[in-house]
Amino acid sequence: MKTRDKLNPLGIWFVGARGSIATMTTVCAHLIAESIIEPVGMLTERHPYTTLPFCALNALRFGGCDIRSEPLTRTLDTFIADQILPSHLYTYAAAAVSETEAAIDFVPDLVGCIRTEELYNVSGEVLLDGLRSALAKFKASIGGNPVIVVNLASTEPIIPGEQQLASFESWEQLDTFIRQSNARLPWGFLYACAALLEDCSYINFTPNIGAEIPGLEDLALRRQLPHVGKDGKTGETLLKTALAPIFEARALRVRSWVGYNILGNSDGQSLTNPAARDAKTRSKDQQIRNILRDSPDVCTKVGIDFVSSLGDWKTAWDFVHFEGILGTKMSLQLLWQGADTILAAPLVLDLIRLVEFAWRRGETGALRHLGAFFKSPIGCTNHDFWFQMRELQEHLGIEERIGE
Ligand SMILES: NC(=O)c1ccc[n+]([C@@H]2O[C@H](COP(=O)([O-])OP(=O)(O)OC[C@H]3O[C@@H](n4cnc5c(N)ncnc54)[C@H](O)[C@@H]3O)[C@@H](O)[C@H]2O)c1
User: Fold this and answer.
1) 75 lines ligand 1 (CB under 6 A)
2) Residue 29: other Cβ atoms inside 10 A
3) Which atom of ligand 1 is closest in space to residue 269's alpha carbon?
């Protein structure tokens, strides 16, 4: 196992760099580093995690790419409108994002297109080369130091034939396919390829396809790079995977677990596309059956709808119908009201630190100990949140006694 030194600065290249989570993560990193706000929601800022030599937040240099070109201050304006950024912090937040503005590439520019729509006529090979050049340029701008690519782009519709990508066992086979294929390739796949080919660790916070397929795991192992994903576990699914173990622990039989989510931010808007919504609900609908082994016939349903007036605020209602002895039926109802971006940004900062730490320790391939952060954790077959947290602590060699 090849260990590495801590290097400063550390580059963070956001895919979807003009979106809500990328912008909020940049703002929070700066405001925490300057002690303007407290690091609420960050594990790596709390004992015993603080005993580990994680990178400093002021070592992070942000950049990335987006298919939109509106200034980052436009995203800050939506935070003010949604009441997730207090207005007295606006000036600090604007100063934080101003440094990043020049380091964000407009994706059509990378392949000589004028407009975003034209990207759909460009081959996967050309797109991949454009993304690699942008990443190489960013890496050079921070003196060749390490870069972590964090995918925070909108949820993509599942493309017909996408499953074929998972059938290639080695990187060579995948590479040949990319060069010969005329079919449209999923963006998430191309971003994961570009990251690993440019020797960057990869974090996939989206439900989109990423480095979980065998050909890219092969590439990550050969390049000695870690990767992790997918689909950040921030709200309703976090709650479900923390609560479902109670029913299992008490040997109660759960008959149905139904969840319905409404949200109004631009991520929610992207889910108005039925194929994108399908990708998201699939990612949210697998955990309960995995955890509830005493309830093999449990019926699960997940719904998501876009309600624009809610802005960044998501409301989730969960109905759990369960059965005790004599078949007596009971129910539990939950209402969750969370600000999605506020829940996600500290998690992204934790993931950056944990992945950089793993990279320094020479860990490669899918990081299975980070399953607690994801709805569809790569290589982690147990969705129980408490099991996943114990795995994280065991892996890091720390012990946290929650509740003592
Ligand atoms: N907020 C949460 O709690 C949460 C939890 C889990 C997963 N996620 C996922 O995180 C992602 C980002 O969420 P968000 O709220 O910041 O969304 P957002 O809509 O605010 O931002 C997404 C950004 O990605 C850009 N984009 C779209 N396609 C792109 C492409 N091909 N290349 C580069 N940029 C592209 C968009 O222009 C936009 O700026 C989504 O996929 C969402 O499903 C969010």
Assistant:
1) no
2) 23
3) 19
| Integer Cα distance of 370 and 393 in angstroms | 10
Residue whose C-alpha is closest to residue 396's, from 16, 49, 131: 49
Ramachandran bin of 186, using left for φ above 0, alpha for ψ from -120 to 50, beta for the remaining angles: beta
SS3 388: helix
- Cβ 283 under 6 angstroms from ligand 1: no
Minimal CA–CA distance to 84: which of 314, 304, 303, 291?
314
Q: Which residue's CA is minimally distant from atom 9 of ligand 1?
A: 206
Cα 283 to middle of ligand 1, angstroms: 15
Looking at the CA of residue 314, tell me the nearest atom of ligand 1: 3
3-state SS class at 211: coil
Whether residue 1 has pLDDT greater than 80: no
365 lines ligand 1 (CB under 6 A): no
Which run of H or of E encompasses 238?
helix 236-249
CB atoms < 10 A from the CB of 263, how many?
23
Order the strands of the 365-366 sheet from edge to edge.
104-106, 60-66, 10-15, 147-151, 201-204, 226-229, 365-366
User: 201-204 and 226-229: which strand pairing?
Assistant: parallel
What lies within 8 Å, CB to CB, of 396 at 6+ separation is 49, 52, 369
Does ligand 1 come within 6 angstroms of the Cβ of 16?
Answer: yes
Ligand 1 in reach of 187 Cβ (< 6 A): yes
Q: Ligand 1: does its nearest atom lie under 6 Å from the Cβ of 155?
A: yes
Amino acid present at 343? L
Q: Which helix (H) or strand (E) holds 229?
A: strand 226-229
CA 98, 102, 104, 109 torsion-angle sign:
positive
Which positions ≥6 away from 275 have C-beta within 8 Å?
Answer: 157, 158
Contact 23, 71 (CB under 8 A): no
Backbone angles phi, psi at 223, to 5 degrees: -85, 0
Does residue 15 line the site of ligand 1, with CB under 6 A? Answer: yes
Nearest residue by C-alpha to atom 21 in ligand 1? 19
Q: What is the pLDDT of residues 234-262, one digit of tens each?
A: 988 999 999 999 999 999 999 999 999 99
pTM: 0.95
Q: What is the mean pLDDT of the chain?
A: 93
pLDDT(306) > 70: yes
